Amino acid sequence: MAVIEVTKDTFEQEVLNSDKPVLVDYNADWCGPCRMMRPVLDELAAERDDIKVVSINIDDEDELAEDNDISSIPCLVVYKNGKEAARNVGLVPKDVVIDLIGG
Known about the structure:
This protein has a single domain (4-95), classed as Glutaredoxin, CATH 3.40.30.10. Helices cover 35% and strands 26% of the residues. It contains four helices and five strands, in the order βαβαβαββα.
């Protein structure tokens, strides 16, 4: 599955109401570390069908960023059963992202 672009209109459906854990990448086009993180997220989305990987551009979706206390990017947040389960700020290798998801 590919990384899904999420907006405030689709956040509830794609993230909060998901039947599987969701890895949310809060990012911006101008952010170098965010661009470096994207290939890792694309790989995970392609390899793992037990999770959903979504992307939220904080410049386009500043309300979502504010509502979810995003102050630095890239910020990866794992949601399970509609609730935040884990968070990591900054560029990290794939194994750290996998640990964040929970294996």
